[in-house]
Amino acid sequence: MNRLDRMDRVDFKPTVFPQLTTGDMDEAADAYAAAPLLNCLLRELAEPTGRPDVHRLRASGRELRTHGTRRPYAPEVYADGAWHRLTHPELVALAADELRRSTGVDNTRLPREMTDSRDVVAALLRVRAGTAPPEDPYLRSEQSLIMGHPYHPAPKTRGGGPAAAWLPYAPEAYTRFPLELLAVREDAVVEEGDTRALDALGRAPAGYRLLPAHPWQLALTATSEAIRDAFADGRLLRLGSTGRPLWPTAAVRTLYAPEDDLFLKFSLDVRITNDIRRLWRHDLLKAVATDAATAAAFAAQDGPAAWLSDRGYRTAGFAFEELAVLVRDGLRGHLVPGATPLLAAALVEGFDGSPLDRLTDPADWWAAYLRQVVPPVLEAFARHGVVVEAHLQNTLVAVDADGTPVQALFRDAEGVKLLPGVTRAAGWERLVYCLVVNHLSELAALLAERFPGTDPWPAVRGELRRTGEELGLPEAAALLSSPTLPGKTNLLLRWTDADGADARYVPLPNPLAGT
Asked: From CA 384, how far away is CA 83, in angstroms rounded?
């Protein structure tokens, strides 16, 4: 019996990290990598056939059969009168062929990213088999995401380099590490906002300012002529490393220092999902103003919701983007007493200690979750013109001792849009995609899967209606009757090499309209 035949008998559930033998890990890596790629294919390039497990790829007419619903696995293609199981390389090749037919353009990079993403998962599974997760439930949730974005063709790619280059800095490997400490001559420092927290990480010589650096980014920029020249002429000095390690969060380039209760976000010249994760100059130049508007929108609200402010940034003028570091609020000054923050994306993927594992009836928990997450996002839009990017990875949900949601915390000013910088219609579409499609739809699907017979959508509809009426928000009422929701086309965006910040959507059936 070969490995692919065995997969018919594997009850594979990506929401649970399986305890596997070495031989099983390649099988699991294939399945983890196939699920988001299949989700993309079915969303963007396929049409229904009347059978829930069979889909027709529009460009080629081929029929694709999958198992499972929320996280499809074990794909098969119909050819020569029979169903044929696809290996992961064969699935990547099929996706590439379908994309060429659909778009009329070729792309050799994305198939490599898909393969790299799968290989990253395999490496992570092997490391995690012998490594204990963090004891702190918040850190455990941030470092739990093996599959990652459920609708991206290569959610775990790390730039295609050897595992030894990126594994020491991978949150999914339960890592922590010190920062490199640099000193930048004062006449070369560029900063805006409140960056005082950086000065507590070490001591710079007279005439210099402290600049912490992500060690992976420093290695990636080792060939930068501007940085080499700055080390050579004394504008940039090496001071060693921080005394305490920091923990990488789900975003990979954002680290948390628990003792200092501080988040630091760095440039990272690696493609992760849709973008090279630099702190781009154009984003930094508007970051403080965008953050101030967002912080004011949350401060004006009468409720426990909180915004983790991006207080300011510091960098070197000769390497503005490469060496930039952004200072973000920690948690303790924002959390309600006794609450434990958890990453929303981790609730969807699953992790040891998830409050969902304690539920026998999700109704009250789900109602509490919606009360914490939905109103602050809609109020920021309706009353302040702030479009919060409230997707799963930008949302923390704090729970009480019983696991009940009591607060939502939101983060990342880089993804925030302000009206009228974007049109109201475009802002609302982005809000609906992030909050409803990326976020609430994923949790609703998980609850329906875990608790057969449960319909999570009436509660979502009720919360949107109530909040929309209180705010006088006509878009909320229109959303409840719209036949479709916007689904982001990450597969097509990557294939056509669109800018990482671009967003294009396909219409998805709206479960709110039928509730």
From this structure: 54
Helices (H), 53-186: 88-103, 109-129, 137-142, 163-166
pLDDT tens column, 238-291: 999 999 999 999 999 999 999 999 999 999 999 999 999 999 999 999 999 999
pTM of the model: 0.94
pLDDT (tens digit per residue) in 403-453: 999 999 999 999 999 999 999 999 999 999 999 999 999 999 999 999 999
Q: How confident is the model at residue 399 (pLDDT cuts 50, 70, 90)?
A: very high
d(CA 78, CA 213): 51
User: Which amino acid, 46?
Assistant: A
| Residue carrying structure tokens 């109201």 | 424
d(CA 57, CA 98): 8
Q: Any idea what the Cα angle at residue 62 is, between residues 60 and 66, rounded to 5°? A: 135
Q: How many Å apart are CA 484 and CA 480, to the nearest integer?
A: 10
State whether residue 438 is helix, strand or coil. helix
Q: From its phi and psi, is residue 403 left (phi > 0), alpha (psi between -120 and 50) or beta?
A: left
Domain ranges of the chain: 3-133, 180-327, 336-509
Return the CATH number of the domain spanning residue range 3-133: 3.30.310
The answer to whether domain 336-509 has CATH 1.10.510.40 is yes
Q: Is the CB of residue 27 less than 8 Å from the CB of residue 33?
A: no
pLDDT of amino acid 28: 93
3-class secondary structure for 268-310?
EEEEECCEEECCCHHHHHHHHHHHHHHHHHHHCCCCCCEEECE
pLDDT digits (tens, 9 = 90+) for 304-360: 999 999 999 999 999 999 999 999 999 999 999 999 999 999 999 999 999 999 999
| Cβ proximity of 137 and 25 under 8 Å | no
CA distance 465 to 153: 34
- Is residue 52 packed enough to be buried (19+ CB in 10 Å), middle (13-18) or exposed (0-12)? exposed
pLDDT of residue 361 exceeding 90 = yes
Tokens of 298: 């949350």
Confidence of residue 515 (pLDDT cuts 50, 70, 90): low
pLDDT score at 7: 34
Q: Which of 71, 237, 255 is nearest to 146 (CA)?
A: 71
**pLDDT of 24:** 81
**DSSP H or E run through 492:** helix 490-495
Could you tell me which residues come within 8 angstroms of residue 139 by beta carbon, excluding any fewer than 6 positions away?
247, 256, 258
Q: How many residues does the chain have?
A: 515
